[in-house]
Gfo/Idh/MocA family oxidoreductase
Amino acid sequence: MLKVGVLGAGHLGKIHLRLLNESEKYELVGFYDPDAINGHKVSAEFGYSYFENINTLIDSVEVVDIVTPTLSHYECAKKAIEKGKHIFIEKPITNTLEEAEDLILLSRKYGVKGQVGHVERFNPAFTAVKDNIQNPMFIETHRLAEFNPRGTDVPVVLDLMIHDIDAILSVVASEVKSITASGVSVISNSPDIANARIEFANGCVANLTASRISLKSMRKSRFFQKDAYISVDFLEKKVEVVKMKDAPEKPGDFDMILQNAEGVKKQIYFENPEVSDNNAILDELETFADAINNNSVPVVTLEQGTNALRVALQIIQSF
């Protein structure tokens, strides 16, 4: 079991603490929170060991789980890496691109592994269909949430849209060619609604919409590619895969056949894979333990987290 410590005991930090405490791959040593009142309260309520000194906690573990506000990600990660500790760091990886790139260099220098908490990569709906997504040429995503003051310290792009940016970058094997975007601040000091159009060098186009002042929640992505349409509902954990193949010479009575203007006939059929239930946060934490123990590449590397941040910041700059 890997000895792990958590930095940050807010809403998400408490979830990480609970899951790490339950995990058979980690030994939870304790946690640090700069708010001593909150730290002692969480310790008293759940029984986790509270460390009043961040360095003492880092020195006591092999893995540091960083679940602090984004503005402090870099300093926390830097402290841990320079002490030779592996880091799991929540998304977005850092506040600036320069900070993220420096963490990559530091991790290489000190020979430690890092993983970024892009949890939607572990969403069972996405993992169920990811292998079906082959060379998509048009992608449309909608990520809508009801207003919650938590997270409004950053633009909606870094709060919500970055999930979809990372997922898209993981399935489109091409460089970003251009980005156009618009954002509107409604209740926060930073944009609450954003729309972005990402064009890739291979011709793929992704249209992303994110809002944190919606009346209802929605987390859907649709992938269009040759002879297939794939829909992923990250919220409901449902998938829909619609494919086409050459129509048989003698279609059955219930076969769905389409014919284009050139007379080519295609048969539509459904191929919906089973979606297994899981705890995505636990999965991402435990696959990081596997990467450390097996000396393998983490599922979401620091480099991938940096690429998602780079695109997110380009979107913000396009407003």
Observations:
- The chain has nine helices and 15 strands.
- Residues 217 and 280 are 19 Å apart (CA to CA).
- Residues 121-277+311-318 form a domain with the Dihydrodipicolinate Reductase; domain 2 fold (CATH 3.30.360.10).
- The mean pLDDT is 93.
